[in-house]
Amino acid sequence: MTPPASPRHVNDGHLCTFLPCKVENARQRVPSVAKGTGAARSLTSLSQPAIDWVALASGMGVPGRAAATAEEFAECMRQGLVTDGPFLIHARLA
Question: Cα–Cα distance between 73 and 91 in angstroms, integer?
Fold first, then answer.
């Protein structure tokens, strides 16, 4: 099996996984790849550890806020539009 030319993310029923990693695990015949559980999933999952995007942006000098509701998102947009330079909005989707 030839890996894709560009990185791709696929929905695996839980969150997203990085397709080239899944391809490489299959090439190495990692048993859990076929079952979709175990070590291979934990190595390719983008859900663990949870990433604090606002803190990550802040560490790079970019202000930001998280929003879980439409009202919070609207407030973040207003703040972002009056901020000079980039502004990160982490939209937490349920």
Answer: 7
Q: How many domains does the chain have?
A: 2
Task: Yes or no: say if 25 and 40 are a contact pair by the CB < 8 Å rule.
Answer: yes
pLDDT at 7: 46
Mean pLDDT value across the chain: 76
Cα 91 to Cα 78: distance, rounded to the nearest angstrom = 14
Structural domain boundaries, residue 18: 9-44
Give dist(CA 45, CA 18) in Å, integer.
7
